[in-house]
Amino acid sequence: MPQPPQKRRPAWLMPTLAAALVVLVAAGGVGAYLLYGQRSGGPAPSGTRSSSPAQQPASAAKAPDVCAMLPKEEAERLVPGATVSRSSRDSDYTVNFGCNWINQRISFGEFWRSREIDVKVEQHKGEGAKTGRAMAQTSYEMEYRGGKYGETAKPSLDPDEKEYVSPVKDVQGVGDAAFAQYTWRRDGKLLWYAFGTAHARVGDMTIEVKFQAGQQRKDAQILSNESAQAVTEANAIREVSGLIGHFAKGVAAWQASNPGVLAKAEPSAAATVSPTVSATPSPTVLASFPAECQAVTETATRLVPQPATRARGTAAGADTQTECRWLNRELSGGPGVTKIRSVLITVHRFTNRAGAADEAAAKAFYASEYGRTKTTAKSSIGGITWGALTDVKGLGDQAYQQYVQSRSGEVSASSGSVIVRKGPVVIQVDYSGHQRPKDKATNSPEVVMMPEKEAMAGALTVIKAYLEKSAG
């Protein structure tokens, strides 16, 4: 008896990874394609049909709207703020319809969550003496046998790979037949994911639903499975069992309205609906220097003599930001030498909907910044070199620092940055500068970066002064 098909990584997972790379690595991502280990066993049946498919009736029914079969409140519960895409195409043996809900970057406290629902509906055409219903039954039985085989199959895995496939669970009361199954996979240090899959048959149509969910701490290394958590077997089976019921009912309703006919594929129906994106608010120049910044002006001007000052404010949802800068682009560095020095303080204050201080939101923001910094630490991209990330003890509730050199844009400079969280407030101080021959451009190759020791000492001096003054 031939063995069911060997398992492969689902194709729907690769766009998920690509989307995460695009979002998280703004300077350019590097994708990786990793294949499942092959399962032991005999060759899989090809499933090739020798006879010609039945001809589609001249009059075909309007395509079922797969996306509309899932109640909006259920879609929002499972995949908040999803990008929704639909598909439709005709093949030799089936008419195919699909819908996908995906959001790979859901902010949840100190975690980034990822969620995806992918649904495929196939209406099977008759072949010779076999009806579309019979062909759908054959297809469903092949999927069921494949699931049962996966329960006990022993995949050939690399030493750092692990995989678990759950027993098949029959889903009662859904269509003509339905079952669900769970898959958990870990690939080295890059991937850690899990998903539930459900299959059903309703008349001459088969349905496949996948639900993937996971989360990772915001301060985790990007492009790694550090602190990754995947949906549990119980939760995955529960959710796909409920989802398959929604789509089975939707398919049955479409069949009742269109008895005995094939649906008409609508290739032009392929579309993507993205959630509404709020415009990023522009900073507003403040009429006067905030008192909290005025309190550290003496410290700042020791680092930046005779500065030009500027203060700006921004409100971005629950994050109220204040930015204060002291800048001098024309400092003397000795005969024939010009220096630039700048101190920038950015303060983020977080409040909840009631207007009360929101420490949890500040923790989440800090963790996100920490994770982003950890990802670029000790690396170089496009003229920017990031130094090591170092945790700093004794400043606020959490703190870290980093030295960065940049030779991109109109001004080449280095910066010492310190980021501190104190309760519901996150403060960042950047002390930046360079020196160059007086007649050279600010991005000249002859620019000499401010040394790391000077940059970090200046940033730490300012943040300590700020914390001391704000405490008083």
Q: Secondary-structure blueprint of this entry?
A:
Blueprint: H1 13-24, H2 72-78, E1 83-90, E2 94-108, E3 111-124, H3 132-152, E4 161-165, E5 169-170, E6 177-187, E7 191-202, E8 205-217, E9 229-230, H4 233-257, E10 271-273, E11 284-285, H5 291-294, H6 297-303, E12 308-316, E13 319-332, E14 337-350, H7 359-376, E15 379-381, E16 384-386, E17 390-391, E18 398-406, E19 413-422, E20 425-437, E21 448-449, H8 452-471
Antiparallel strand pairs: 1-2, 1-10, 2-3, 3-8, 4-6, 5-6, 6-7, 7-8, 8-9, 11-12, 12-13, 13-14, 14-20, 15-16, 16-18, 17-18, 18-19, 19-20, 20-21
Protein name: DUF3558 domain-containing protein
Region (Disordered): 41-64
Biased composition (Low complexity): 50-61
Q: How many strand segments?
A: 21
Query: Which secondary-structure class do the elements indicate?
Result: alpha+beta
Helicity level, as a percent range? 10-25%
Residue stretches low in confidence (pLDDT < 50, at least 5 long) are 1-58
Largest sheet data: 11 strands, antiparallel
Count helical runs.
Answer: 8
Coarse morphology: elongated
- Domain unit count: 2
